[in-house]
Amino acid sequence: MAIQKRLKALNITLWAVQILLSLTFIYSGFMKLFLPGDLPWIWIKENPDVVLISGIVDLLAGFGLTLPALLRIRPYLTVFAAFGTMTLMISAMVFHVLRGEGDQIGFNVFMLISAAFIAWGRGKKYPIKITNQPR
């Protein structure tokens, strides 16, 4: 019984982290693609191509972290999206460190740890099961 309660709490926590990360990435992608002039960072004006690519990748990460698991259509894609998000965050940290902005990577570290939690949780500990599989 205690194990079931812990698994239920883990599932709820995973969904909360997935939704929060998803909303953050969707918002970020939308802002980078449609309102880049409103963003306060200097690198956005210096690197418009990076902003475009980053916005597209952010939107894909946002949708990939929740939709496959929510719709139960190939839910293992959520784990792949989490690994992709981890790669994105590592790339962002390298980008900021190379620009001398190492003091600004705290948010990226938090997002990296959250994505690693999702990859671990949905990959190993509490994967989403497909309920209506054709046989």
TrEMBL record:
Enumerate the UniProt keywords alphabetically: Membrane, Transmembrane, Transmembrane helix
What topology in the membrane does the UniProt record assign?
Multi-pass membrane protein
Q: Where in the cell is it found?
A: Membrane
Tagged with keyword Translocase: no
- Segments forming a coiled coil: none
> What InterPro entries has UniProt attached to this entry?
DoxX (IPR032808)
- For this protein, the parts annotated as crossing the membrane are 12-30, 50-70, 77-98, 104-121
Protein name stated in the entry = DoxX family protein
Q: Can you name the source organism?
A: Algoriphagus pacificus
